[in-house]
Amino acid sequence: MMSLASWLILFAGAGLLLPLRSAAPPSVGSGRGLLLVENKGEHTLGIVDPQAGRMLAKITLSGVTGHEVAASPDGRFAYAPIYGNSGVGAPGSNGKSIDVIDLRSRRVVHRIDLRPVRPHCAVYGPDGMLYVTAELDHAVYVINPRTLKVVGSISTEQPESHMLTITRDGKRGYTANVGAGTVTALDLENRKPIAVIHVSRIVQRISVTPDGRWVFTADQTEPRLAVIDTSTNQVKSWIHLPGVAFGTTVSPDGHWLLATLPKLNQVAVIELPSMQVTRTIDVPKAPQEILFRPGGQVAYVSCDSSAKIAVVTVDNWQVEKLIAVGRGDDGLAWAAM
């Protein structure tokens, strides 16, 4: 008779082992976990030991190519939307699936099939649902991680809805609609759009403060960040930068906002009480995305032209070390342990 462990191995190999929804996210103060990175230049998901500063494994994805990644709150599974071989709004293939990766067995165990919509950014919501931007459908899909089925769709009313951020309470979502130069505010509870906010001709990426008060997106025509007041869904002010920004993220305590400056090979450090740049940090070429480790003591910066992740210590804003990863490293996620 086969043991339970043998059956589980058999199911995983057949792609039948399905993830279960986690009851609650890990504590914010926990710093133990694995760093996940999308190596879009070689179509792999990298698993990094952040303490040792080395990549433990590369998992080949099922298609070309994944840019972003999300992890389940229990750290068991990762979700990698397969976007396609193009840039935003450019000609190319249209991705139509999401790879589900078992981080214990380090293999793709399931593929969620969608329509050819260029799925891009996946965010695990506090309600236990997986929210994924569906660029060509002008929507955000809602996926149940237990059944791996699409259970809803929220219109963004805008083309090129590329990136998504969700408030800590899970009530609101905001998409950066790149070529439209807008941000769409979404009511996640009722699954409907609330407002379309004009920002610029082109925007990139998006983040929200822990209290849900401010949303930030990067203007691609001028060196500045739009500051959106979520109480009015209007651009309240601008944060002026040394160069054009790309990715942004807010520290867990809500005090700091970091922005990558790809052409300057720097990260701008912004103090949110004053909304002023206090310093810049030199990092390897073409910084893309930033992720704070739970607790906020360390920030990780993917640098896609360098195949390196810069590890920044927040106390002194110094690059502590560089971690070698795969080509075209981009999207980051934290898998709790």
Structural features, described:
The strands form 7 sheets. A 4-stranded antiparallel beta sheet has the order 3-2-1-28, with no helix packed on it. Strands 4-5-6-7 form a 4-stranded antiparallel beta sheet, with no helix packed on it. Strands 8-9-10-11 form a 4-stranded antiparallel beta sheet, with no helix packed on it. It has one domain: Methylamine Dehydrogenase, Chain H (7 Propeller). The radius of gyration is 19 Å and the shape is globular. It has 337 residues and is an all-beta fold. The protein has 1 helix and 28 strands.
Summarize the main sheet. Answer: 4 strands, antiparallel
> What sequence of helices (H) and strands (E) makes up the elements?
HEEEEEEEEEEEEEEEEEEEEEEEEEEEE
Mean pLDDT: 92
Number of strands: 28
Q: What is the alpha-carbon Rg in Å?
A: 19 Å
State the CATH class.
Mainly Beta
In the CATH classification, which architecture applies? 7 Propeller
Any idea what the shape is? globular
Number of domains: 1
| Structure classification | mainly beta
Q: How much β-strand is present in the residues?
A: over 45%
Q: Please state how the strands of the largest beta sheet are arranged side by side.
A: 3-2-1-28
Distance between the termini: 32 Å
CATH fold assignment: Methylamine Dehydrogenase, Chain H
Query: Helix count?
Result: 1
| CATH homologous superfamily grouping | YVTN repeat-like/Quinoprotein amine dehydrogenase
What is the share of helical residues? Answer: under 10%
Oligomer: single chain
